[in-house]
Hints:
Distance between the termini: 36 Å
Helix content: 25-40%
Largest sheet: 7 strands, mixed
Number of domains: 1
GO molecular function: acyltransferase activity, transferring groups other than amino-acyl groups
CATH superfamily: Gcn5-related N-acetyltransferase (GNAT)
Number of helices: 6
Pfam families: Acetyltransf_1
Structural class: alpha+beta
CATH architecture: 3-Layer(aba) Sandwich
InterPro entries: Acyl_CoA_acyltransferase, GNAT_dom
Amino acid sequence: MPSATRQDQILLVPWDPSSTEHVNRIYEQRVQCGWDKQRVDGWKTKQTSGEKCIFWITLRPENPQTRESLELHFDAFPAEKEPLVDTADSLRAKPRTPSHTKFYPVGHISLDHTNEKMGDFVLDLPKKGVYWIKTFYISKALRSKGIGRAAMDLVESMAIDEPLCAKTLAIDTAQKDTQKRIYREKGVELASTNQEWYERRGYRLIHTEPDFYTDPEEPPVDAVFLRRDIA
Length: 231
C-alpha cells in the first residue's frame, strides 16, 4: 500500500487572479467542493490586494506516487487534464517572479489574515497574530491519501515562519452533526467529519453559529469556529 503523502511531496503555487485559466479552474473546483463558487469573482480583487492568499495544491512531479494520483484525479475530472502555468506576479500584494512552469492542481487552500464571512459575533481570538485557513479543497478522487494533511502541515509551517509569524490559526467549518446529517440525506455515512479532523490536529472549538453557511442552491448549514495556538 502506498504511504501517505508527506509535506515535502507537495508544492503550493499561488493562484493568479488575472489568469482566465486560473479563475476558471478554481471555479470548477468550487463546483466540485459544493460551496462558494459564487465568491470566486470577488476573490480576484481580494487576492490582488493581499486580503486573501490562495494557493494551488500540487504534487511534486518527481514523487513516484504522483502519476498514479493524477490519473485518479483525471479519471474523475477529465477537464482538469490541461495543466495550468505558474503566472502569478504578486503574492500578499508584493511583487513575485513567476516560474512559468506547468502544474496540475489537485486542490487549493488559503491563508488569510481576515475572515471574509465573519458576522458581528465576538470570537475568543487574540487581536493580533491570527491567520485564517480558508478556501480548502482536495480532489474528491484523492481523499484519504494524506494530501489534505500534508497541505495543512505546509500551511501551518508557513504561518509560523517569517514574515507572518502567526501566533494563532483559526478555521470555520460545518458543525459535525449537521455535516453528518447532510451526507446521510444523500445516502452516505461519514466516517469522520471536518470538525473532528481539525480537532485531531489540535484545533479547539470556540464558537458555534447556526445557519452560518448560506448558498442559493442549498439549505443553511450550522458552522463551528476553531482555534489552535501555535506560538
